Amino acid sequence: MTRIFVTHKIPDEGIKLLKKRKSIKLDIYEKDRQIPRRELLRRAKGADIILSLLTEKIDGQVMDSAGSQLKMISNYAVGFDNIDLAAAKDRKIIVSNTPSDQVNESVAEHAIALIFGLSHRISESDDFTKAGKYKGWNPNLLIGSNVIGKTLGIIGAGRIGEMIIRRMHDGFGVNIIYNNREPKPELEKKYKARYRSKMQLLKEADFVSLHVPLLDSTRHLISIKELKSMKKTAFLINTSRGPVVDEKALVSALQSKQIAGAGLDVYEHEPKIASALKKMSNVILTPHTASATIEARRDMSRIAALNILAFLDSKKIPNQVKL
User: Fold this and answer.
1) Is residue 288 annotated as part of the catalytic site, yes or no?
2) Which of 239, 251, 245 is nearest to 278 (CA)?
3) Are residue 169 and residue 244 in the same domain, yes or no?
4) Among 13, 109, 188, 270, the one annotated catalytic
5) Which position among 241, 247, 268, 297 bears the catalytic label?
């Protein structure tokens, strides 16, 4: 019997797939909240496989608490910065994740929504109207700016970045500049995208959208120097990982009007958010929900389960993370 510990309830698609196997015993943390660390260590004991969320830190302590029979960690997330990959490698534990076009589509749409929400001051207008402040049309009321014809800077032109580039170029006539580990001639040909160094991109872009994984090299990728390089009329969008942006530096840049605003779905010290950000009318905050669509979450559940089933069947794991 293979014991799988699931650290949080996930959509039924994946659970149903796992329950079909009579040789699998599922232990699912029953509360709809992040599992406390002590409970995680206790419930992991004896697990052959852990199906984890990005909110749980799966380090050597968790792996050792589970026991030497732990052979796989199936992460219900595209990223895997919550897992100590070196510790997993030392213990010969396989790690997998859940990349999906559905997830990429959802995150791309969310980033685009933040761009339009900021430029058209949607959140501010909603608050203003609901507060009963609207007394009639006024030509100077809550003036925003057009997106068409502006310059969008994409840092990290992977699958999500490219989805945004296609939609914004084809649909809204936005000028595209991008920064990536390597130039992408195909992007440049299809969307007239222009490659820029990070600092040059920041100087030119009206919107800067971040789409990089959290690595040592990307932690505080955007900090004081970078924010000072941006236009005072520019907006910063982050739907990647919170620590990619130095949150203190961002607060300072917003307070001093160094940049015009920000749209954030992720935070440096999640779930904590700098209190100053919550008070700013030119900032849109969402609770790490860029991938929160029915389609995306179902797909992630299914992929997490299929990764496990492939491992149990001694087949190639579709989304195995390189350790």
Assistant:
1) yes
2) 251
3) yes
4) 270
5) 241
